[in-house]
Structures are given as C-alpha cells and as structure tokens.
Design a protein that fits this description.
5-stranded parallel β-sheet, Rossmann fold, two-stranded antiparallel ribbon
Length: 291
Amino acid sequence: MTSALAELSEALANVELTVPAAPARFLRLEFLEDAPEEAAAADVWSVTLDVSGLDAVPAAGDTVGLLCPNAADEVAAALDLLGAESRADRPCRLSLLPGTTKKAARVPPHLPEHASLRHLLTHCVDLRAVPKKPLLQALRDDAPLVMVAAGTGLAPLAGFLEERRARGQRAPAWLVFGCRHPELDFLLRDELEAALRDGFLSRLDTVFSRTGDRQRYVQHVLAEEQARLARWLVDEGAVMYVCGDAKGMAVAVLDEVVQTVAKAKEVPVSEAKKLVQQMQKDGQYRLDVWS
C-alpha cells in the first residue's frame, strides 16, 4: 500500500494543471464601525381602507385580512398533498360536520357555499398563513391603559388612541414606544404628540435603540419606571397591551412585568409568574405579537 501511494504521488507531481484565470476584480469589501443611519429605517406603509360599504362598523383593535389569489403551482401542490387533483374542478359544498362539538361552529362567512376545491384553494384561503393571533378588542371607558410597542407594533395601539379621541375618552393611558432612530422610523409621531397634547394620552415615553452610547429598548424604560408600572398594574388594575416582536421584545417585557409584580407584591419570582399568567387569563395582560 505504501509503495502504491508513493507511485501515485510521483505520478501526480508530473501532471501539468491548467488553472483558469481569475475574473477581473470589481467588488470591494469594507468593514464599518457602525451601520449607516439610513439602514436603520425599513419601508413602512400606511394604508387607508374605505369601509363605507360594510354591514358591520369596524372598531379599534379589529383585524383586517387581505386574501390575494394563491399561485397556481402552490395550489397544485396543495391539491397533490390532499390527493384531490382529479376532483379539483368538480363542484363541492361546504357544511358543518354533523354532531360537531366545536362551540359556535359555523362555516366562515367569506367562503362560498358552493365552489370547486381549486377555487377555494386559489381565492378563499391563505396557503402561507401563520397561526392567527387573538384579536384586540376595544377597552371599557374607565380602564387605565398601559401600552408597550416597538416599531410597527404601534399600529394597533394607534387605533385605540383614535377611538379614544372619537369618544372623547380621557381615562389614564400610558404609551411606551421604541424604534431605532427618532428621525428615521418614529412612526405616527405627530399623531402621538397630538394625543398627548389633547389629553387622550396621559404619558408618552420613547426610546431609540440606535442613538446614545448604548442600545436601549422599551423594557429598559419599564425597568426605570418600575414603581410607576407597579402602581398602574397592581394598584390601579390597568390593562396592559404589548405589541410587536414576539421573540425579543415581548419576552423581555414579560420578564420585566414579572419582576415588577414580584417586588410590588413582595413574593418570589415563581409566584409572580403565576400572578402574571392569571392576568393574561383575565385579560389584564394582552399580547398582539409576531415573529
């Protein structure tokens, strides 16, 4: 074996290799100390919908779903998984299963009673849908409100503020809002400042993660205002809404709320977690988050 390897090595040493020429250089890579400020802002669209033709009157916190036609190849893949390609264009009817145990069961109103399966999969369902989050509902007029939002998580909370203005409602409301830069992605700044000025928002705390010597987020504001948060949540029974990123912001805010409850109630953190879980069940601590 050793002699065979030696012979192979000697043979390879005598082989002439032709290496293709490298292409002309046209790119340059530079390492930056900090990200440029313009990279901090993402595109954000504000969309206004005409609801004058709807039978029901939308309320703050309602969710609007836009169903766009699914791609034909994705519909075909779904039909294949269902083993229904041969029957995809036959008429079918949707109805409830006899004896269903689901409470208040009904056929979703946006689905036609008679249609082909291909039509349903193309026009009536979202093949890429993520699990639905609970809908936010309008709060009762006398409920103090603590709102925590990061980035576009501000959108549903802005609806509450608009409804408060429409109703002339001035119950205590505190908003903690965070984004990257005050000049790049401070969403709805004029509206928030107007709500604060006109008394529809009692307190507004803002935090910007890309300014200053260290990165700060909404949870840091809550930590600094722990006594105020305890007074609102524990003493006054305020309803708290957390809107935005599920993996980072919402977890950090929840941890801060647990710490606040533990200190205010003078109980261990393990017991405070149970109290916050009960707050969630009672609707006092509500989430509208996504990842």
